[in-house]
């Protein structure tokens, strides 16, 4: 073998830069399924099954295109368990003159592969990841010129540079931001009829993987029933078309709304296909913009959707790669509680949280507001150690890859980076959940979102006030939370003491 092209589980793009200049007649592909990737965090069955099935489909397609693929399956008797060990073995067996790899999404994996190549003395070429609009070096350059990192400036800059949703005289529709039109709560009647979720029938390869995961990973969390995630590029493109036709027009309006047992609503379900590189963000953004130009979706929905991909997705990647490895240890709020055990079972004592957790474990999916303002909010208000929160999120979602998961968890959701990524902690009381779900959870809950003390106090509400008491100085120093923390002035000393004592007592029931 002249060059061995290393393809990781989240690099399933036949046009990736690692393949540049390579020739199936002389070069070969290397891929490995290893236990380490499902056990370094205790990955759900759904997440592992998605990765393995998509990898096996990609390998089959490359073979059909004339490539030799050296593929180590999870259940091979000789499987050495880690990427580093498998790569070391492949280098000894195949004696490649060189290795090529597209820049990986995970700092840990980059170190492992560099280490194995270095130890074997084989040159490793790391090619830039063309999947993204913004190169990490460009991000670092942009970040150096900013007094603080903020999504809005970064996003506007990228829209201008790439001519996305732009008209001759400025942003399409006359504004950069349509947040005020987006993010409505449902009325008391709820969402009504919602579009059907993805329904992709598992083929023979997927069925084999599901059986493997059921036996090999029997003690891993979560379920596998109803596996319907795109595992090939063709399926991912179909999922994109369905989203544009059926969900995009209402995407913005209901982006932040919550409803019991309504996991998908108008969300795209495209994150896993994007993160595995079955889809490129450019084709997703272009499809959304084309729908608006053709009058098939309103500007607010399209801007709201493109902001997530061209904005947030690129932004968090820049944060991750410019801050690692230090970022992983962030704990600016000095939080040290253990993650409650019910995060792994879904048996939370509150219906809003139990619904989001059960759905996560069953489907490998929860939408953004469930992740941020139900699950993440609870962990933050409780004061859970950020590293434990990070490990949970990385384990449970089908779209979880560290470069995107970690800044969302440590930065956006837990404020563990002290404000590097978000301008304020995302904190709210149970009233927020009540409003965004039109009372549908609270009306069937033993707690009251308007109560902050006493036996029927909503745990979110009580812990929200406790959080403000614990971090009063920090919140008062921040112009975006100053007003919020002023409400503490209304609390008598007795009520403050009760909030603190009851919150401590509640914490002791949660581990
Ligand atoms: P939609 O709601 O349809 O959004 C469209 C697309 O925009 C998504 O597919 C995704 O690619 C992108 N997007 C939206 N929000 C973000 C964001 N904040 N950061 C980056 N991309 C975004 N996303 C992941 O891809 N992997 C993760 O591991 C992940 N972990 C998260 C953890 C927390 C605590 C939070 C608050 C958010 C996390 N997100 C993560 C972002 C977001 O919640 C998911 O991308 C989204 O819920 C996936 O569902 P969807 O494809 O239906 O997205
Ligand atoms: Fe959730 Fe509080 Fe409402 Fe109960 S009262 S459903 S805990 S927000």
From TrEMBL:
The keyword Metal-binding does not apply. SUPFAM superfamilies: Cryptochrome/photolyase FAD-binding domain. The keyword Lyase applies. It holds the Pfam family DPRP. One of its GO terms (molecular function) is lyase activity. Keywords: Lyase. InterPro entries: Crypto/Photolyase_FAD-like_sf, PhrB-like, Rossmann-like_a/b/a_fold, UV-DNA_repair_photolyase. This is Cryptochrome/photolyase family protein.
């Amino acid at each position: 073998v002249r060059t061995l092209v290393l393809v990781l589980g989240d690099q399933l793009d036949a046009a990736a830069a690692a393949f540049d200049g390579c020739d199936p007649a002389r070069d070969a592909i290397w891929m490995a399924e290893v236990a380490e990737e499902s056990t370094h965090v205790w990955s759900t069955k759904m997440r592992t099954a998605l990765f393995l099935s998509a990898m096996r489909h990609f390998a089959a397609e490359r073979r059909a295109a004339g490539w030799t693929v050296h593929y180590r399956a999870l259940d091979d008797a000789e499987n050495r368990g880690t990427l580093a060990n498998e790569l070391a073995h492949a280098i000894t067996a195949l004696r490649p003159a060189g290795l090529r790899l597209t820049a990986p999404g995970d700092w840990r994996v980059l170190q492992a592969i560099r280490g194995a190549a270095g130890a074997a003395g084989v040159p490793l070429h790391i090619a830039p990841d063309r999947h993204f609009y913004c190169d990490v070096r460009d991000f670092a350059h942009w970040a150096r010129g900013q007094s603080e990192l903020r999504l809005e400036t970064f996003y506007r800059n990228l829209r201008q540079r790439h001519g996305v949703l732009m008209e001759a005289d400025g942003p399409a529709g006359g504004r950069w931001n349509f947040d005020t039109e987006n993010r409505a709560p449902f009325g008391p009647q709820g969402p009504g009829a919602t579009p059907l979720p993805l329904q992709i029938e598992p083929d023979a390869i997927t069925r084999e993987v599901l059986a493997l995961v059921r036996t090999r990973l029997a003690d891993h969390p979560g379920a596998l029933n109803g596996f319907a995630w795109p595992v090939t590029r063709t399926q991912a493109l179909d999922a994109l078309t369905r989203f544009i036709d059926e969900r995009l027009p209402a995407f913005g309006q209901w982006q932040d709304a919550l409803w019991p047992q309504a996991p998908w609503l108008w969300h795209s379900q495209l994150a896993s296909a994007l993160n595995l590189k079955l889809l490129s963000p450019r084709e997703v953004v272009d499809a959304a913009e084309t729908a608006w130009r053709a009058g098939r979706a309103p500007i607010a929905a399209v801007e709201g959707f493109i902001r997530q991909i061209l904005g947030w997705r690129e932004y968090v990647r820049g944060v991750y790669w410019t801050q690692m490895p230090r970022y992983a240890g962030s704990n600016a709020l000095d939080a040290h509680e253990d993650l409650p055990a019910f995060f792994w079972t879904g048996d939370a004592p509150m219906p809003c949280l139990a619904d989001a957790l059960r759905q996560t474990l069953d489907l490998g999916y929860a939408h953004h507001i469930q992740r941020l303002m139900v699950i993440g909010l609870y962990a933050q208000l409780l004061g859970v150690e950020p590293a434990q929160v990070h490990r949970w999120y990385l384990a449970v979602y089908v779209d979880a890859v560290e470069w995107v998961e970690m800044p969302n968890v440590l930065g956006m959701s837990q404020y563990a980076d002290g404000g590097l990524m978000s301008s304020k902690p995302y904190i709210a009381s149970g009233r927020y959940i009540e409003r965004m779900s039109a009372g549908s959870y609270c009306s069937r809950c033993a707690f009251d979102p308007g109560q902050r003390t006493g036996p029927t106090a909503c745990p979110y509400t009580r812990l929200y006030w406790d959080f403000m008491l614990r971090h009063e100085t920090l919140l008062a120093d921040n112009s975006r939370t100053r007003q919020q923390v002023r409400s503490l002035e209304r609390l008598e000393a007795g009520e403050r003491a009760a909030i603190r004592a009851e919150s401590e007592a509640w914490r002791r029931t949660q581990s």
